[in-house]
Amino acid sequence: MQLRPVEYNMRSESSDNQKSIGFIAQEVNALFPELITIIQDTTLGYPDIPDLHMMKYDAVGPIAIKAIQEQQEKVKKLQDQNAALRSRIEVFKKKLASLSTTN
Q1: What is the C-alpha to C-alpha distance for residues 28 and 40, in angstroms, rounded to an integer?
Q2: 28 CB neighbour count, 10 Å cutoff
Q3: Cα torsion for 43, 45, 46, 50, to the nearest 10°?
Q4: By the 8 A CB rule, do 35 and 50 touch?
Q5: Could you report the per-residue pLDDT of 24-53, keeping only the tens digit for each?
Q6: 10 phi and psi, to 5 degrees?
Q7: 32-41 long-range contacts, CB within 8 A, separation 24+
Q8: Residue 39: beta bridge partners?
Q9: Where on the phi/psi map is residue 17: left (φ > 0), alpha (ψ -120 to 50), or beta?
Q10: How do the domains of the chain map onto residue ranges?
Q11: Which of 39 and 13 is assigned the larger pLDDT?
Q12: DSSP 8-state symbol, 91
C-alpha cells in the first residue's frame, strides 16, 4: 500500500520526452532497497542529480505476487467467516420460526 504509482516525464536531452508510468525510485528505496540501483556519477547528463536511482522493475513481479497471495489468504478467511455467520443466521431463523408457530 505504500508504493505510489506515478506518471512522469523523464528528464532527458532527447526531444521525445514521453510520459512514463512507474515509481519514484527514491521512494521505493525506503521500502525495498533491493529494488534500486544507485549510480553515483554526474556524467550521465544530470549534473544536478549526483546519485541516479534506477528501478529494477523485473524484481517487482515477485513482490506483487506475494502481496496477491497474502490478500487471497485474507479473502479466503473472510469468506469462511462469512459462511459460518450465514449458517448461524439460518439456525437462528429456524429457531425464531419455530417459536413464532408455537405461540
Answers
A1: 18
A2: 21
A3: -10
A4: no
A5: 999 999 999 999 999 887 666 666 777 888
A6: -70, 130
A7: 32/63, 34/59, 35/59, 35/60, 35/63
A8: 52
A9: left
A10: 6-55, 58-103
A11: 39
A12: H
